[in-house]
Specification:
Radius of gyration: 20 Å
Number of strands: 0
Number of domains: 2
Shape: globular
Largest sheet: none
Order of helices and strands: HHHHHHHHH
Distance between the termini: 45 Å
Helix content: over 70%
Number of helices: 9
Length: 248
Amino acid sequence: MNSKPLIVKDLMNKSVATIVTNNINTATVFKKYKIDFSIHGNLLLSKACHKKKINLKQIISDLNAVNNKVYYLKDYNSWDLDFLIDFLVNIQHEYKEENILLLKEYGEKVANLYSQEYKELLKINRLIQKIADNILEHMRNEEKTIFPYIKKLVEAKNKRTSVNTNNSPLNSPIESIEDEHEKVTKIFKKISKLTNNYKIPENTCISFKVLYLKLQQFEELLLNHIHIENNILFPKAKKLEKSLLLDI
């Protein structure tokens, strides 16, 4: 069963992030048009299209094409915050940890094999090696500080108890994490450009193909992951924290 068609006038004054938050399926359309929905998703759709010189009716046609009903397993905006955190840690963080190590290995291997013919592989490998450890450290910081604190807020709300917010990580640490989000997306934009949007050259070995496919998959998950944190988890956590302060 499909949702009702999206209407031009209803969407013009909605932010890109809001559209993706309402339906994660639309993320594929914004990625196609290279419109950022995770870091600077607060830009209105009309302004984003104007900036990129994209026909508004055309993009809304594409948005309608993917506007299928969002089932609970993809409707992240409807999930409880503690459940959302478990998903980020146990599914997405685990995937990222496993695959960033694979990307480090294959980036080095493919650069050694093909860099004379494809000079860009040296730059791609350097970017992978540069960002890999940062991503792993970033995830550890979230799991050690931010996520446990948000879970404490949820527990306090459910049990109607107080929580110490004096050293809340929802201020400066959150801003630091969002800055890191922006840095890593910029690096993957560079990688995407260097790989010609992950176009695999002919007559290359399986390792070359695996590297480009894994890079593309990783970037897609990364953008969705950052969107969930920046535009759903963190804003809701700040709102929850504020509500608890008012109740005290």
